[in-house]
Amino acid sequence: MTPWQKFCPSEKVDLMRMIKGLLFAVVVLAVLLGGAAAYVANTDLENVRSAVQEHVRERTGRELEIGGEIDLTLALAPTVTVAGVSLGNAEWASYPAMAKVGRLQVKLRLVPLIFGDLEIDRVELQDVQVFLETDRTGRGNWVFDGLAGDTSNDGDTTSLPLAQVVAIRDIQIIQRDGRNGSENVYTASVLDLAAEDFSGPLVSHIVAEIDGEALELDGSIPALRGLISGDGGRLDLAGSFDARKVEVSGNLSLSKDKAGGIAGIRLSDLTADYDGVTAKGDATATFGAERPFVIADLALGSIDTTKLSKMSPAGPDLNGLDIPIPFELLSKFDGQFKLTISQVSTPKMELRDVQAEGSVKDGILTLTPSSAVLADGAVAVKGTIGARGNTGDIALKGSWIQGDLGKLLMRMTNTAELEARGDAAFDVTGRGTTGREIRNSLSGVANYVAKEGSIANATWEWLAADLVSQFVPFVGQDAGQGVLTCMAGRVEAKAGVLDAKVMYIETSRVSIAGSGKIDMPDEKLNLRLTPRPKDASLVSLATPVLIQGSFDEPVFVPDPLAVATTAGTMAIGTVALGAVNPLFLLIPLMSSGADVDACAVAVDAANGKTPKGGTKSSGGIMSIFDGLKKIVE
Fold first, then answer.
1. Is residue 41 predicted with pLDDT exceeding 70?
2. What are phi and psi of 294, to 5 degrees?
3. Do 401 and 505 reside in the same domain of the chain?
4. Distance from C-alpha of 299 to C-alpha of 281, rounded to nearest angstrom
């Protein structure tokens, strides 16, 4: 007995077993590699090329080109490498190839290969280009003529070799719409899919870029068998886009047409979250017509437009009015939608309980009567939004009933000096690619009316800033809260220039009438407000105020004409102004004791009506005040 055997008998036994195991593994490996070599030696790779091309031709009606040599490397995982692979396109397509692959590598399983079975362990594709397009009728190039009418194997994937892992690097998808010539390009640097079998979910890893922003998703998509058969399966993806959290889950299923192409996609029990903005509901898209037909029923949570502006590709400094609105999307699909949003917040206002419903056809979105709540008032809107390329044509008509003006003012200006409820209405059209362009093109009419409330008398300070004490002596810092009798206004817009036909406020202490223009494109103000105290002894001290300058830097100055005139000549000047804007004929009525209800006249004028007891004339609203001229004259 050797010293090793004497002192380490167990170690000798273990060593011998290890040596025997290694020898056995070497023998098995040699047999397998020898078998693989024999298999390869008896395989004509050119015949493989021809067989694959013929199979693709029969199944798709397209030609498969393999430009490079087929290289087979023997190892524990035999590997087939091919360069320059392309699949032919439809005859009518713009591009000669539907897909191109710079390099294709297939790793096989060794043992099944020895026995003549093809089992794929991993497929790697490098430098991939996919061209997806439709013809003028909307038919897609992904519908293969070779599959037309062949539905005998629908859902049967058992005869197809399964790749456990598919890894794609640097993929570019070019999508072209043959109906309007539009073209979009999508890129991804990493796309990994893995599955144990056809019945199991596909574990996914995606790294891509959209509009310059990084997208990364991990999770699973439904099993191939479920997608092909139409049964579908569960979709669960999570990750980030533009460094913001993204989650998508739901039941995904596909339907096929007679040609074997994808006829539709359905997402049910959908839940999506993007940086705190959630959406739940169902959506379907069917293909085959000129445009996909989409039906969506979605409920969204709270939306903060401040976040949306920060998400804009132009960066967080971009004004919300300058964010391009993707009107061109309306020309890419038809459909019907029902949308509810719990809350939409902007820096200046907040909408609650938004309910929108309508349809999209031929690039025109028709909004059926939809509703929301703004400052406790009911909003109703209907109209159309049409797309001409990336430009939108807007035509909207709506109303705001019993809205809380004080709450709205508080949101917009952070002041709590008004308590009143009122009604408003609008009927406007506009055109543009952004909110600013649409605002600057507005045409139509809007009006507002409020009756009974309260308003802080110190609020009038904004009329003339430091000129208040000199030109509006009937208002002071300690004036307290006054009774609001009425407030009315009417604005007529043309090409973004707002013409204030009616501007009138009456309180227990003072009345103010005004008119003028607001130039939206140039952001300029040209308004004239004339105060009239209820205290007759102060009438001669009240001076009209001009509001001029820009939106950002308004200038308040006394009307030089009014300052230079006496009380008598001011009355004459008022008549002259009445010839330009008859609303100024209200001024003497504010405190003259005339037997005319100035509030009623202003309210009717704001609503585009003839005052009660008055008579209509061809002059419309402007003629409402004709009868008042005689009082001044």
1. no
2. -110, 130
3. no
4. 6
DSSP letters, 573-611, are: HHHHHHHH-GGGGGTTHHHH--SS-HHHHHHHHHTT-PP
- How many residues make up the chain in this entry? 633
- Residue 247, pLDDT > 60, answer yes
Name the helix (H) or strand (E) containing 316. Answer: none
DSSP for 179-192, please give it.
TT--EEEEEEEEEE
> Model confidence over 156-213: pLDDT tens digits?
444 455 667 889 999 999 988 777 677 878 889 998 988 877 677 888 999 988 777 8
For residues 325 and 299, membership in a common domain is answered with yes
List Cβ neighbours of 471 (8 Å cut-off, separation of 6 or more). Answer: 464, 541, 542, 543, 545, 558
166 domain-assigned:
no
Residue 100 is encoded by which pair of tokens?
């191109």
pLDDT of residue 9: 47
Same domain, 499 and 563: yes
The reply to whether 56 falls in a domain is no
Structure tokens at 506: 């009456």
**How far is Cα 418 from Cα 459, in angstroms, rounded to an integer?**
9
d(CA 454, CA 442): 32
Of 267, 213, 217, residue with least CA distance to 238 = 217
pLDDT category, 511, cuts 50, 70, 90?
A: confident
Residues 396 and 357 in one domain: yes
Final residue of a domain: which of 386, 421, 441?
A: 441
* Residue 502 shares a structural domain with residue 558: yes
Q: Which amino acid is at 445?
A: V
- Rounded to whole angstroms, the Cα distance separating 186 from 208 reads 8
Is residue 70 assigned to a domain?
no
Task: Examine the domain organization and report whether 437 and 465 are in the same domain.
Answer: no
Q: Which residue has the tokens 């070019």?
A: 174
Instruction: List pLDDT tens digits, range 77-98.
Output: 788 888 999 999 998 998 899 9
- What φ, ψ does residue 443 adopt, rounded to 5°? -135, 145
174 belongs to a structural domain: no
Strand pairing class (350-361; 545-550): unpaired
Question: Do 396 and 426 touch, CB atoms closer than 8 A?
Answer: yes
The pLDDT tens digits for 351-374 are: 999 999 999 999 999 999 999 999
Give the type of residue at 328: E
Domain that holds residue 452: 442-632
pTM of the model: 0.69
Confidence of residue 536 (pLDDT cuts 50, 70, 90): low
Tell which of 388, 414, 441 closes a domain. Answer: 441
Mean pLDDT (the chain) is 76
Same domain assignment for residues 449 and 433: no
Kindly write down the DSSP assignment for every residue of 403-453, as one continuous string. EEHHHHHHHHHS---EEEEEEEEEEEEEEESBHHHHHTT-EEEEEEEEEEE
Query: How far is the C-alpha of 92 from the C-alpha of 148, rounded, in Å?
Result: 17
Please tell me the total count of domains within the chain. Answer: 3
Helix boundaries (H) for 2-74: 3-7, 9-41, 45-60
